[in-house]
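hey so u asked for the seq, here:
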Amino acid sequence: MARNTIATIKKLSLAIYLVVPWTAHAAAEGPFVGELICSTGEPIKDAGVPQLTLPSISMELRCEFGDTGSGERATYTGAIKIAQVPAAPIARTFVWQVKAPSDAQNVTSLLAQKFDAQPRERNEPLIAVGQTEPKIKIQRLTDRTKDNELIMIEMHLRLLSRLT
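ran it, structure tokens below
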């Protein structure tokens, strides 16, 4: 059973590698500019990702971002699409470290976009890159071994409100 699961994850990693532009398997570039905390909500009915051998699901998201430099806080709504190893619990909270170039302005607005997961090796951090603004990257803060049970495919954030 474990060999089949590992083989499935390797096949999925290859599938994601073919879909997502390749970048170095390293921590997200740029300095840490804030923390994004997201909670999952109800599942969204969609077709999933048919080419995956693992079941995929889309869920509603509600996120809060705190900019460490300006102190600005923002709220987002959106969705996350993930695939999970069978029998693994569905993640309900995601805590992300937001990274951006030091000259990036208005990170709060730049977070309102779609993010694609980068290909990664087992036990490497889960990193996603903005589709519209690829200089914005998010890196999941978690026990990396637990990330082996979860494969994020895509996340989409819409800015709901901001407080300065």
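Residues 1-26 have pLDDT under 50 and may be disordered. Residues 2-163 form one domain.
lmk if thats what u needed
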